Amino acid sequence: MADTSTRTLISETQLSRPLGKAVYWTVLTLVVLGFTLVFLGPLYWLVTGGLKSTQEVIQNPPTFFPSHIHTDTYSEAWSKLNMGRLLFNTLYYAFGALAFQLVFDVAAAYSLSKLRPVLGNAILGMMLATLMIPSTVLIVPQYLTVLDLPLLHVNLINTPWAIWLPTVANAFNIFLLKRFFDSVPEELMAAAAIDGASPTRALWSIVLPMSRPILGVVSIFAVVNVWKDFLWPMLVQPDPRNQPLNIGINSLSIGVPQNVVIAALAIASLPTIVFFLIFQRNIMAGLTSGGLKG
Amino acid sequence: MAAISVSARRKTEPPAQENPSQGRAALRQRLRRHLTGHGFLLGALLCFACFSWWPMVREVIMSFQKTKRGKTTWVGMDNLDRIFQDPDFWHAWRNTLLFTVLALVLGFAVPFAVAVLLNELRHAKSYLRVLVYLPVMMPPVASVLLFKYFYNPSYGLFNNVLHALHLPTSAWLNSPDMAMLSVVIAATWMNMGGATLIYLAALQGIPGELYEAAELDGASLLRRIWHVTIPQTRLILSLLLLLQVVATMQVFVEPYLLTGGNGPQNSTLTVVNLIYQYAFSFNNYGSASALGLVMLLVLAGFSALYVRLSRTTD
């Protein structure tokens, strides 16, 4: 992406003229300021809103800086909205889903790519077919399935399984992983087989170490998806003690002062923002490489 | 070298069966390989069966059934008849289409314009990219409730800004005319980052010589966008357009959190909201499934188009 030499819509010569320079720097300043205002402004309002008093936060006209800093709003939000519990639940669901997806989807993709059992292609086709079905349409039969799991007849409502297991049925992950595993040379697999390595051993010692980038992409999106999901956890986690952030804040915020709610939202956003700033390179690479040609 | 022998062995599996015990050993080995393969698939297969394949079948079955006090009966087309007669059905579709159109005007055009602009800038590139994508990463409840606070007609930020600029203020979410637009604005802010970055990647793939040539031919800036940028990104644009249509037609969270689902005079009741209400407010799984099936058929049309388009890109 660091191809500064290739020209775009506007040529370097045009930009180096005095008029071009003036226009460019004006546009750049406007864009930087505009973007900061539009995308960072709301976050500033979120963080400072949590520092205002109950009266100040609904005062008209609003204040740009909190007149008195009320850090206790944050501690109030933490205890009143049970933030510790909600954060823990969200992390528990997200990393549990990640573990399940890594184990089952990697195993499935490896099998489809390298072991190629009978009917493998048909199975892959049936998995990919699910990508065509809009997810919200299936929400009712999925809910009923979780209510009474076929054959086993267990009710998964209010258990983390209701969130973990459905995330495994992710055809896009399996497709991405399979395509990456396909690029692992057959020579290596054959050499491992000659050395007496079992399929599991070959997966562990050869395929996985070579697949770090794709595993990173899949992991990040697995965590982000659970973190962002709303409708499904709302249905399958009716007990407030088991709810993730998205649902918990919404249901617990009724009757709570506005500034406390805002502080809670700021607390809820902080982990994702930190996560994003740490992994932004990987996230954006994954988005533009794997994101489109599905 | 080894690759050739391995792939050759795969294609013509049993090389030569001179003696039966050797053949049996090879067979056993092959069987073992298939069994291991299916063993590795098992976890994912069970999850797909439970949470994708069976629900797909069940969705269709339930559309023609009615469940009352635990007893399930076949009712044929009754569910479909019922939902077609429900005035909310037409409300929901009208609102969903309105949302889709508004969301495309904003959520499709704005990211493209932003991507074209960002592609021209030589400075602050990664800063701007991080900014655009930041809302995509936030928990939806945070963005949505923040916007709800901004939309508040008496003390919200938006009306205060409008007031300061001497522009007419609005009731935003409380007004039947403005509610849907308010939902779209919030949704665009939350989601535009993804599309912007994909466009940006596509724009970076355009060969510079094309612009060079167009410029030599005396093409103005706008004509260069029209005759080079847009044709060069046409496929990605159309793919994303279809994906966005399919995604935006399933909108649920934003109206649910911003207006409680219905909005003033049902102005933000969307199809998925209606499915949700049929199923989880009225326990009418039959109608919910029938409506889901209608939605599925509508979206299947778009998905089929997507498949055709993505084939031509390869």
TrEMBL record, chain A:
Alphabetical list of SUPFAM superfamilies matching this protein: MetI-like (SSF161098)
Superkingdom of the organism of origin: Bacteria
InterPro entries linked to this entry: MetI-like (IPR000515), MetI-like_sf (IPR035906)
TM segment ranges: 22-47, 91-110, 122-141, 161-181, 202-227, 260-279
UniProtKB keywords: Cell membrane, Membrane, Transmembrane, Transmembrane helix, Transport
Record family assignment: Belongs to the binding-protein-dependent transport system permease family.
This protein's name: Carbohydrate ABC transporter permease
From TrEMBL, chain B:
Protein localization: Cell membrane
UniProt xrefs under Gene3D superfamilies: MetI-like
Every ABC transmembrane type-1 domain range: 93-306
Region of interest (Disordered), residue spans: 1-23
Keywords tagged on the record: Cell membrane, Membrane, Transmembrane, Transmembrane helix, Transport
A Pfam family matched in the record: BPD_transp_1
PROSITE patterns xrefs: ABC_TM1 (PS50928)
Membrane topology: Multi-pass membrane protein
Sequence intervals crossing the membrane: 35-54, 97-118, 130-151, 178-202, 233-253, 288-307
Source domain of life: Bacteria
Xref: SUPFAM superfamilies: MetI-like (SSF161098)
Main location: membrane
UniProt keyword annotation of S-adenosyl-L-methionine present: no
Keyword NAD: no
PANTHER family, sorted: ABC TRANSPORTER PERMEASE PROTEIN, DIACETYLCHITOBIOSE UPTAKE SYSTEM PERMEASE PROTEIN NGCF
Family: Belongs to the binding-protein-dependent transport system permease family.
Annotated protein name in UniProt: Carbohydrate ABC transporter permease
Lineage: Bacteria, Bacillati, Actinomycetota, Actinomycetes, Kitasatosporales
